[in-house]
Amino acid sequence: MPPRSLLAALTAPNGSELLREQAASQQLFDWLPELAEGEGFEQPALHAYTVLEHCLAAVEAFDELMSLEDRGIAFAERTAWFGREGGLAGELDGVPIEALTRLSCLVHDIAKPATATFVADRLRFPRHGPRGAEILGDRLPSLGFGPAATDFVQANVRYHLRPRELVKPWPPSDKAVGRFLRDLGGRMFPLLMVNICDGIATQGPRYTDIHFDRHCNFLTYVMTRVAMLEEEPGALPLIDGNDLMTELNMESGRLVGAVLTSVLAAQGAGRVTDRHEALAYARTVLQTLDASGS
């Protein structure tokens, strides 16, 4: 299991305060040294804070939205129809999903310092989401997080900017929403929480009720589309051919089709129920086919 004091901060309603204390004592950086690189790292004018302060502010925003005070009350009312608690309920590898979402807020920009570059004299952070997911693929297991918990946080970090793609073009197609949902292992709400908290932390004291209203409207729209898709059994394959080529280093061809057919059959039979299981099953099928010379 992860360090007890880290879990205590991630599960506390005032987690942001505890994480700030751990950052001040350097303990947080012992666990996640890449976060230390964001200390004092200035960002473009759009951002109110340095990289590290922005990450901590995102956790603070999460705490606020989960509280029953101030803006948290309004957020609870706006999300009550689809069961906000349900979207963050349960555990992965013994760690509450709510805590893993708080962790996702903390580390969503962990790779910004490593990816910082100037493009046309403007500071940019290309592919900091995917790079952050790669970093966490090593860091989180070393801290004691299990594979499902690690996958969850990695997905939230990798795709934390992806909601922007859903508005280009508008409205998003069922295919776009469905693929996004599948890439997140069916857990859309936690990612949208990370996205909103990122937005709040970006604006900092400039964040207004108008921004909040827009964020809530967008979240409600996407969750409505998700609910419509989930009413159609089998509408969302857990993986596709692109995933096999990316995750299993397969080349496009008949073998991809054979493995994917087996995985989809297993999904239909209920033998695999999430992306992690589907990829593990695909690896087993591929090994079997390789051994048989197919």
Name the helicity range.
55-70%
Largest sheet composition: 2 strands, antiparallel
Query: What strand line-up does the widest sheet have?
Result: 1-2
Number of beta strands? 4
Distance between the termini: 41 Å
Low-confidence stretches: none
* Strand portion: under 5%
Structural class: mainly alpha
In N-to-C order, the SSE pattern is HHHHHHHEEHHEEHHHHHHHH
Shape: globular
Number of helices: 17
**Total tally of structural domains:** 2
- Overall mean pLDDT stands at 88
Radius of gyration, in Å, reads 20 Å
Description:
The protein is globular, with a radius of gyration of 20 Å. It starts with a helix and ends with a helix. It is mainly alpha-helical and 294 residues long. 64% of the residues lie in helices and 3% in strands. It has helices at residues 4-11, 15-24, 27-31, 33-36, 51-66, 71-79, 84-87, 97-107, 112-115, 128-143, 147-158, 174-183, 188-203, 209-230, 241-247, 254-268, 275-292; strands at 91-92, 95-96, 117-119, 122-124. It folds into two domains: 4-230, no CATH class; 241-292, no CATH class. The chain is built from 17 helices and four strands. A two-stranded antiparallel ribbon has the order 1-2. A two-stranded antiparallel sheet has the order 3-4. Helix 2 (15-24) packs antiparallel against helix 5 (51-66) and helix 5 packs antiparallel against helix 8. A hairpin with a 2-residue loop joins strand 1 (91-92) and strand 2 (95-96).
